[in-house]
Specification:
By secondary structure, the protein is α+β, with helices and mostly antiparallel strands. 58% of the residues lie in helices and 16% in strands. Among the domains are: 55-137, Helix Hairpins (Orthogonal Bundle), CATH 1.10.287; 156-204, SH3 type barrels (Roll), CATH 2.30.30.60; 210-290, Alpha-Beta Plaits. A hairpin with a 3-residue loop joins strand 2 and strand 3 (179-183).
């Protein structure tokens, strides 16, 4: 109870002090208007002088900002030219260019603030505080940044590779600081966070120089398998994009419901995969027709049994 009374008394005393100060200021304004007006005039004059005195500094800062923007763009252009002449992957060169751009712009802002009279220690403190706050607010984004660096180091894929990740697939068009962009076969842009790309299972269809093309064909049960096999092998030998250093497998896969299923497994360079896939499919069908090999279709035989009516 005594604490409450003490706090109330202190608050009352403080309010009385402010009221007395306000009364003194009003009384001074009434009794000595000339001095009050003179003091206000001095205040505004000092404010105007400060603004006029800061104009050269502001103009100089603007000039440095304009020059700095041109210098930054020129430096980034030189960096891009230099990186293009190196033997580094396109993925690495673009990532380095993006990081360099951010660093240069942060450096330019720091220089401008220093010219305006803000101490370097204050700038560093502000950047550090902002970094901590942003880091706490954007933890997922920071994980994506870390994922971007890991992609640069581990290189599970690079720009131009056709990959499958998280149920989507496409050609890698860009690996930025936060995300990886894929261009799908239908030319849709797909953006995958780098954190997910690092932790997910990635299928890189362009990771090896050669790929196997898996195809299946069917022939009628009345046809000879060896004849069909020879026709298929002749087609594969005639295709210049089919790699001849790998043996192409042509084997009977299964006895289907209405046809014999043949597995055809040629090899080719990764870049020629789809050409070999489509060309071989078309050419083998044409070869079957030219050699009178029946290509069956699924059919169902229905047998009707006539029953004698009961007497």
């Amino acid at each position: 109870m005594s604490d409450i009374l003490t706090s109330t008394a202190a608050a009352t005393a403080e309010a009385a002090t402010h009221e007395a100060t306000l009364n003194d200021a009003v009384q001074g304004l009434v009794e000595n208007p000339e001095q009050t007006i003179s003091a206000l005039g001095t205040f505004f004059q000092n404010l105007l002088n400060s603004i006029l005195g800061a104009i050269p500094t502001i103009l100089f800062a603007v000039l440095i900002l304009v020059i700095g923007l041109f210098a930054t763009k020129f430096a980034l252009w030189l960096l891009s030219k230099g990186l293009n002449k190196t033997k580094l992957d396109l993925t690495v060169t673009k990532f380095v260019a993006q990081v360099s751009k951010i660093v240069l712009y942060v450096l330019l802002v720091t220089i401008i603030l220093s010219i305006l009279g803000i101490p370097a220690t204050s700038i560093i403190t502000i950047i550090g505080t902002a970094g901590v706050a942003i880091g706490l607010a954007l933890q997922d984004s920071l994980s994506n940044v870390a994922g971007g660096f890991l992609l640069m180091v581990t290189k599970p894929f690079k720009i131009g590779d056709y990959i499958i990740v998280n149920g989507v697939e496409g050609t890698v068009a860009q690996i930025s600081i936060l995300h990886t962009r894929l261009d799908s076969a239908t030319n849709q842009a797909i953006f995958i966070p780098n954190g997910q790309a690092v932790n997910a299972v990635v299928i890189n269809n362009c990771g090896n120089e050669y790929r196997r093309v898996d195809l299946t064909f069917t022939i009628s049960y009345e046809e000879e398998f060896e004849k069909a096999r020879k026709v298929i092998l002749d087609v594969l030998k005639a295709n210049p994009k089919v790699d001849k250093t790998h043996d192409a497998a042509v084997r009977m896969l299964e006895h289907g419901k209405s046809a014999i299923v043949i597995a055809v497994r040629p090899w080719c360079k990764t870049a020629d995969y789809w050409d070999v896939y489509f060309d071989t499919t078309e050419q083998i069908r044409a070869a079957f027709i030219a050699n009178d090999i029946e290509i069956p279709f699924e059919q169902l035989d229905v047998h009707v049994v006539n029953q004698k009516p009961e007497a």
